[in-house]
Specification:
PyrdxlP-dep_Trfase, binds 4'-deoxy-4'-aminopyridoxal-5'-phosphate, two-stranded parallel sheet, serine biosynthesis, O-phospho-L-serine:2-oxoglutarate aminotransferase activity, Aspartate Aminotransferase, domain 2, 360 residues, pyridoxal phosphate, EC 2.6.1.52
Amino acid sequence: MKQIYNFSAGPAVLPKEVLIQAKDELLNYANSGMSVMEMSHRSKVYETILQEAKQDLRDIANIPDNYEILFIQGGASLQFSMVPMNLIKNGKADYFVTGQFAKKAYEEAKLFLDAKVVASSKEQNFTTIPDVANVEIREDADYVYICENNTIYGTKFKELPNTKDIPLVADVSSCFLSEPIDITKYGLLFAGAQKNIGPSGVCVVIIRKDLIREETFNPTPTMLKYKTYADHDSMYNTPPTYTIYMCGKVFKWIKEQGGLVALQKRNSDKAKLLYDAIEQSNLFKCPVDPNYRSIMNVPFVTGNEELDAKFIKEAKEAGLENIKGHRSVGGMRASIYNAMPLDGIQTLVAFMHDFEEREG
Ligand code: PMP
């Protein structure tokens, strides 16, 4: 089979070792005689899979005991409404709008409470992140919301806003598990699985226990209350069993890689290789403010749409898949999550050199 490198923003590349293990276990998991897909979620075997996944995640992300880990369906997008429905108290929340997903979250929150944009990088076409030090947050806000890594634009907060006693809520979908994280800085954080965690189908929500309340937006459906998930260990109903099994495998893979410290080093080296190649090129440019560049999503352009299209087409022929930028911004974007091997970046950089020699 031809070697393919998959630069998709999500669903994204998974560790090969994990896929091989899943293949080996597909028909007969741990001598149960069945596939994990066929198992009752209430069975002992599956209970172990879920508990191990939770514990491994707690270990790798250093999640303190006063935080609950929840597995919720509906993607990261459902959190845009679950967050305001569950955290509402005074009926106010402050939003940083740094891209499309932050904007969607803000628009959704307006359905439930008085949501305010306290900072935005819209005027800079979302190529930067507002300076968190100069942002005024309402003292009676129920929470402050950020999208920590902006998948489409390739920006990342390098510092978190100091929200004092107000819970910080972060969409970490595209940066979670790429580097060590101080969970205690957040009231709640969530990540759609399909980037660094596993296949699509589940969102991991990590929430400080005191924020799990009975009193929520009135009315909040049972399935949209964090309390329902917390009280039933994410098993009030049938969870996405196979997806969670795969996430558990990825967590074990992360442990084997040396944890988040080792991954941060590897991810930074990978990103540096690509950013340096762009900086040194006379053809490619990265539109993102160097102070806020993501190490997971790297956008770049030639400045000429036709040439971008040619690059994307030829890259695909060379086995570099899904390098096209998001439809709303154009150009190219290489998503280089944990499971993208260094070879993938080296191959991309060599291809960029070659393309520049021919076309530059
Ligand atoms: N937030 C971010 C940062 C994302 O990148 C995405 C999509 N990739 C979403 C939210 C939406 O995720 P989902 O498709 O799981 O709802």
